[in-house]
């Protein structure tokens, strides 16, 4: 099957047909037409086999994740996702693989009313690059740079399970059978916090999505906002699976350093706390206050009200070559 047949068969027909897409797949470019009241947020993320997902990951999970990680970036800015472009590089034209991959892609697109408007299909080592775009009312976007001393630090959902799943896959820990399914789902099928992000536009002083690990991503907020933070380890939202598998101390370490959570981390000033908590409850998201922003230039942590050193080290591409 040729490239064009594959595009026609798998990508051209879609359930989602947005009014603001004047021209979708089929020409040299797509044409979209947003309203004047909104700005466009644009983000790109690449998933490389063996780096961003283990080689044995299912096609459906790869499809889901390649969309989810991009929608997660849009969520962190408070954007409503609208259009995606999809560049796929495949070792061979494996039709069954592409079909399953598309299930993962379009499940999320249909859930969030996102239209695939173009892409590129090439041959080579498996890699997926998605560009996602979204709309934000003018001057309403969230950013990493607005955190102020005294603001509370919150996180959505639970953290650390995706990192635990990876450790299980690489035989570093053994996750009991009763937990394995839920833990693997956190790695393979992350749920981007799209509605939470939009709700936070009115309340949060800063926001970021958790891809590199809580500590690294809180570090990004602190650096951009010129502040420090203290994390209350007792309050980290850790699953029973994580705590029962590795014990509380190690669970905290994994929750701080492990990546791939795709939860939102955000800061809120005291006056916005109640409003934010109500708004987020209405989106169906659980949230946990895990600490507070301060004037120091570092991130510290406390356990049982006593200060404890942070041992976790987070993931960074090219870390070993620049250390
Ligand atoms: P060009 O050579 O002009 O870049 P292509 O032949 O690569 O165009 O693609 C033809 C059309 O199919 C374009 O509209 C392109 O956006 C779309 N397309 C190609 N690959 C994909 C894909 N993986 N997903 C979605 N659309 C795709
Ligand atoms: Mg092309």
Could you say what the CATH topology of the largest domain is called?
Phosphoribosyl-aminoimidazole Synthetase, Chain A, domain 2
* Mean residue pLDDT: 94
Label the structural class.
Answer: alpha+beta
**Which superfamily, in CATH terms, is the homologous superfamily of the largest domain?**
PurM-like C-terminal domain
Largest sheet, if any?
Answer: 7 strands, mixed
Helix content: 25-40%
What is the general shape?
globular
| SSE string, helices as H and strands as E | HEEEHEHEEEHHHEHEHHEHEEEH
Number of strands: 13
Low-confidence stretches: none
- At CATH level 2, the architecture of the largest domain is Alpha-Beta Complex
The count of domains is 2
Proportion of residues in extended strands: 25-35%
Number of helices: 11
**Rg, Å, rounded:** 20 Å
What would CATH call the class of the largest domain?
A: Alpha Beta
How does this structure look, described?
- This protein has a seven-stranded mixed sheet with strand order 8-10-7-11-9-12-13, sandwiched between helices.
- It is globular, with a radius of gyration of 20 Å.
- The chain contains eleven helices and 13 strands.
- With 323 residues, it is α+β, with helices and mostly antiparallel strands.
- The longest helix has 19 residues, at 59-77.
- It has helices at 3-12, 59-77, 95-112, 161-169, 177-188, 194-200, 214-225, 240-246, 248-257, 273-282, 319-322; strands at residues 21-23, 31-32, 38-48, 80-90, 115-123, 127-137, 152-156, 204-209, 228-232, 264-268, 287-294, 299-303, 306-308.
- Bound molecules: adenosine-5'-diphosphate and magnesium ion.
């Amino acid at each position: 099957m040729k490239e064009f047949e594959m595009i026609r068969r798998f990508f051209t027909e879609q359930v989602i047909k947005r009014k603001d897409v004047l021209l979708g797949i089929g020409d040299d470019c797509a044409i979209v037409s947003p309203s004047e009241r909104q700005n466009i947020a644009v983000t790109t993320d690449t998933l490389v086999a063996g780096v961003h997902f283990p080689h044995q990951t299912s096609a459906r999970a790869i499809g889901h994740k390649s969309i989810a990680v991009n929608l997660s970036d849009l969520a962190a800015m408070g954007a409503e996702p609208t259009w995606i472009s999809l560049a796929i590089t495949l070792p061979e034209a494996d039709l069954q693989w592409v079909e399953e991959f598309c299930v993962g892609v379009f499940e999320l697109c249909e859930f969030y009313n996102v239209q695939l408007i173009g892409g590129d299909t090439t041959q080579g080592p498996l890699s997926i690059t998605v560009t996602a775009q979204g709309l934000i009312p003018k001057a309403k976007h969230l950013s990493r740079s607005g955190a102020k001393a005294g603001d509370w630090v919150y996180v959505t959902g639970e953290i650390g399970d995706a990192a635990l799943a990876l450790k299980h896959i690489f035989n570093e820990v053994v996750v009991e059978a009763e937990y394995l399914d839920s833990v693997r789902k956190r790695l393979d099928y992350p749920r981007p916090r799209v509605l939470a992000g939009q709700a936070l536009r009115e309340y949060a002083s800063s926001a970021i999505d958790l891809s590199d690990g809580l500590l690294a991503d809180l570090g990004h907020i602190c650096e951009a906002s010129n502040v420090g933070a203290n994390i209350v380890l007792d309050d980290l939202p850790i699953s029973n699976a994580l705590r029962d598998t590795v014990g509380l101390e190690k669970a905290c370490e994994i929750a701080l350093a492990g990546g791939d959570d795709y939860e939102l981390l955000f800061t809120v000033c005291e006056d916005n706390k109640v409003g934010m908590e109500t708004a987020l409850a209405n989106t169906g998201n659980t949230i946990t206050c895990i600490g507070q922003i301060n004037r120091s230039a570092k991130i510290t942590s406390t356990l049982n009200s006593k200060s404890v050193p942070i041992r976790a080290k987070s993931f960074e591409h090219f870390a070993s070559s620049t250390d």
